[in-house]
Design goal:
Elements lengths: L5 E5 L5 H9 L2 E5 L6 H7 L6 E4 L8 H4 L8 E5 L6 H11 L5 E7 H8 L9 H9 E9 L12 E8 L9 H11 L7 H4 L5 H10 L13 H12 L1
């Protein structure tokens, strides 16, 4: 993080991370849904004039509008996100089209594995494909449950997402996202059954190129194959 950057955080809680971020960069914009924390956060952040707390639901917010007045070199998302909304937060960051220099968050270990998994693994899913298209995903390090008081029921992991610079061109991103979701709709069904509403001849032409047919399941297909299938459906 540089001295002229902007960092977005969700769920500042006790402001421990918020303060550390504020010491290292120009501005921190934090979202907190719990308005009962307003007084506590204002006390803890006295003197940190470069921190702005928006007391609203991040998932309902227009991030692009919220950052309009900021002047910065790079923008980061760094947060200990609430585990139960991790995936919706990630999808919101993708859909915002904001060019984050890096996204870094602590998530439940199993979620981190799903985010970074590759074709053929049990945890490979639609979110794995989305993230694999937009970002280089890296598991940075594990965080034991015993680092917390009280001790939670799960271990955690710090995961980072860096924008992929030379990713494959997509003709229609909405179609791509819909195609991927539908492909994984029923985990035990193959592509032929999950994609009945699509032009299966065009899909088959792409699959054949990679040595597959319509009996293949979505978890066997790479990001590049999904991109090609989506583009074939546009042409």
């Amino acid at each position: 993080i540089g001295l002229n950057d902007l960092v977005i955080e969700v769920g500042p809680g006790g402001a421990i991370l918020t303060k550390e971020l504020a010491k290292r960069t120009k501005n921190v914009l934090a979202y907190e849904i719990d308005t009962d924390l307003r007084c506590e956060l204002e006390k803890k952040l006295v003197g940190y004039d470069n921190v702005k707390i928006l007391f609203k639901d991040f998932l309902d917010s227009d991030i692009n509008s919220d950052i309009t007045d900021y002047d910065y070199d790079n923008i980061y998302f760094i947060s200990n996100v609430p585990y139960y909304i991790t995936t919706p937060i990630v999808m919101k960051l993708i859909d915002s089209n904001i060019k984050f220099k890096k996204i870094m968050m602590m998530v439940q270990k199993e979620v981190g594995q799903r985010f970074s998994s590759k074709p053929g693994s049990k945890s490979y899913s639609s979110i794995s494909v989305f993230l694999g298209y937009y970002y280089d995903v890296r598991l940075e390090f594990n965080v034991s449950r015993y680092e917390f008081v009280p001790v939670p029921n799960v271990d955690s992991v710090i995961i980072s997402f860096t924008e992929r610079k030379n990713r494959e061109k997509l003709y229609n991103e909405d179609l791509f996202q819909r195609l991927v979701r539908d492909s994984f709709q029923f985990k035990r069904k193959n592509i032929r059954n999950n994609l009945k509403g699509y032009d299966l001849n065009k899909i088959l032409s792409v699959l054949t190129k990679y040595g597959f047919d319509l009996s293949v399941r979505a978890e066997q297909l790479s990001v590049e194959i999904f991109v090609e299938m989506a583009n074939a459906l546009v042409s």
